[in-house]
Task: structure prediction
Amino acid sequence: MMGREHLVNLYHLRHLRVSVVCIADPHLPSQRAALELANSFNWPLQILMDIIAHPKPHHVLVEKPLCTTVSHCKQVVDAAKKREDMMVQVGLEYRYMPPVAKLIQLVKNGDVGPVRMVSIREHRFPFLVKVNNWNRFNVNTGGTLVEKCCHFFDLMRLFAGANPVRVMASGAMDVNHKDEVYDGKVPDIIDNAYVIVEFDNGSRGVLDLCMFAEGSKNEQEISVVGDEGKVGEAFVPEGIVRFGTRVGGRDGVQTIKTVDDRIKYDGLHHGSSYLEHLNFLHAIRDRGVQAPEVDLTDGLISVAIGVAAQVSIEHDRFVTIEEVLTCV
Result:
């Protein structure tokens, strides 16, 4: 699904002299061959490592999650450090959704003062069917809070302007996929959770995830509160941001409709993946001036928070980020 969306995005960037020179899975036989190869390479780490190690200078936009384990993420980070001729950007495209981008702008402008609380709610439909149902098992994905929710942990860290310290989570597989069986195995991915993240500047974030909530007007609702005001709610896909201050009170709340005229293709992510490609292209062409907006450290930390949340659910305790970053 994401591969097709990326291809259509590149098509809509052709006016900027972007071309597709290789497609890995044009039909089912090659798709099967690619899956067999990926499995033999301990997907996806070894494939990504081979790309980074290729002798010809090139740049990489890697989909999220960077990897499904912290140790694999760290191997990629270390390998990329040896390639000063290479730029690597991680596909955490939720930053580019117009209402989220507006929220980021308001926070960075200091309109709410120091950020104290970040709340992200995703209430949506269950996981879609993917090739060979790979997304039904933690062993393939790292867990729902890694593969699916690294986006939201990236946003929390961005809004907080700080690094995570510890994580507490509660979640389960309560509704979805319980009647499915693949090769004699029942899926084990959680479908709902609450996750609390504490940051080193004293701010906190919370994720409210439910994947059996199709009856929701908005799939994502994001709230950022500081000493002086409440920047958001940002509503996706409704595309609005509400902003208010403590002084202005309820009557002073503004509603802002967000639009980004640069978007030429909305896709399934409200234009964010198009903007991701556009920004990556600009970073490549401004090499030495503009760094990737979402770098490997961002990818690593977003996965580390997700791993900590999965461990917290499994062991019923707070988990420190230091613990998951130092665990081999």
